[in-house]
Amino acid sequence: MSLETMVQCLSDPDTAKNIQAQVVLQSAPVLKNVRMSCMFTIPSGSSKAVCSSLYNTGVRIYCLCRGRGREVLLLYREEWLEGYLKHEEVAAFLRCSGYQAGSLRQQLQRLGERIAGFYNKTQEFPHEMGLFLGYPLEDVRGFIEYRGEQCKCTGYWKVYSNEERARRMFRVFDEAKVCAMEEFFSGKNLREIAC
Questions:
Q1: What's the CA gap between 26 and 69, in Å, rounded?
Q2: Residue 60: phi, psi to the nearest 5?
């Protein structure tokens, strides 16, 4: 897959193809089942097409917020994300951040409210969002404590704890991205790419 081919697809006036390419590029590790979740933004009204493309794949979609012609989506593996958020320390951190114990849907709804509040400039940035993206709790805490500075390395997130583990994960995510993009450009659709 050449860079030229990728750029052409991403700028294709065929919106459906362009949206699918963006989904593959931004969520490949989730599609390939090596990451529990990711978040990205697409044009308003596009989420229904993405949902139907991923129907019955094990990948769920939740619209966190809408506005200014965009939708902020969370793609996730439900059991994996739910299990992570129930870890004792993660759940305690979320409670301290204003989340009530409840269903995953209730927690996602609260996250969406917090993100909308940030976009509307009525709340601070919801740093706990990193937990919903599967970041290690130590790295979320480190980011807050050091205000995004003094990290050990940067990849899919800023790393403050186990650099070696994070670099291994980043490599796995990158490999999933290459694999998913190659499959997409060979003609596979989202449902076929999602493992």
A1: 19
A2: -105, 160
